[in-house]
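Table 4 source record.
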Amino acid sequence: MTLLETYFRPHNHTFKCQTTRTPFHYAKPVYVLTSSFTFSGGEHFAFALKIHKRATLVGANTGGGAHPVAIIGLETGILFKVPIGRTYNPKTNEDWEGTGVTPDIRCSEDNALTEALKDIRVWPII
């Protein structure tokens, strides 16, 4: 099952992030706490779990870094980052670049754990 895809422009190649088992199941609900400091790889993980309805995200919007970059150095010693690709949901073409991943339960970063625990307590104990 393909979770997300990342297109790399320099090589005209698409990398598919996939699970090894289809479908994958959890015995208990999964919660992911997010903040504005959640970025890049953390967002990739949170976004994949969210769009496939495998976790509940709790907290604030993430930082908004969905595009892989290359660091280019100039002879003057200046370095800059250039986007070379894009990670996205292959079904909807949606990504989180610039906007961040929106949590299912929005609250301040400081209250994310408290809000997750409140929500967990409404689940039946198995």
